[in-house]
Amino acid sequence: ITSFERPPNFTGSKLHPLTLFPDIKDIKLGSTLLPDQLQDIQSVRYLKSHAAKVMDRRQQSYFFTLEQNCLIKAGKITGIERILSRLYEIFSNYGTSVKKPFTSLLVFIIFFSLINYIFTIGFVSELFQPIDQTVIKESLLQSLESTFLPFKIILKKELKLTIILFGVLQSIISILLFALIGLALRWNFKRD
User: Fold this and answer.
1) How far does CA 78 lie from the centroid of its chain?
2) CA-closest candidate to residue 48, choices 63, 38, 37
3) Which of 1, 25, 57, 166 has the largest CB neighbor count within 10 A?
4) Rounded Cα gap, residues 173 and 86, in angstroms
5) pLDDT of 113-162, one tens digit each?
């Protein structure tokens, strides 16, 4: 297997349909000046186009991710768009990973269960008391409900306002993660 220090420039070349490239982890982005970074963007776009022609979704997604990273490094994506792009990469690898948003969903269920537990029993004063299994179960159920039945928590008047607000936040996050899972499934099963 050949490894590359930079995205290789095959612009204008005719690549064999069975040409495979290493994962993006094995291709380093140039740390030099802007002209080299612009060359990296053009090289990666050509490789992404080739992967699309031969219908290799895995390679196409690798090169799309690499292209986005080149654009950020070259300063073509800035400000809030850069932040959103990085979040999109972190939580779904630009809409190509089912594993990342699904894992994030599970992590958020556990995280918000802990938040619900802490706010139900009170803060530090009661944290070191014996664990109440009933409260743990209720906290987990509340987190699952906020995940799978978004915004239902608003109807529960008996809960503390902080728990309701965290439930709404979890509902929003869950909807976004389910959308990312849907995008990734569509990407993985897309047929031209």
Assistant:
1) 19
2) 63
3) 166
4) 16
5) 999 988 887 765 555 677 778 888 999 999 999 999 999 999 988 888 99
List pLDDT tens digits, range 153-187. 999 888 889 999 999 999 999 999 999 999 989 88
What whole-number distance in Å separates Cα of residue 31 and Cα of residue 113? 42
3-state secondary structure 6-18: CCCCCCCCCCCCC
- At residue 18, the pLDDT reads 65
Q: Which residues of 125-137 are buried (b: 16+ CB within 10 A; e: fewer)?
A: eeeeeeeeeeebe
Contact 146, 174 (CB under 8 A): yes
Q: How many CB atoms lie within 10 A of CB 9?
A: 14
Place of tokens 């979040």: 87
The number of C-alpha atoms within 13 Å of 99 and in the hemisphere containing its C-beta is: 1
* Strand, helix or coil for residue 33: coil
Query: Residue type at 139?
Result: S
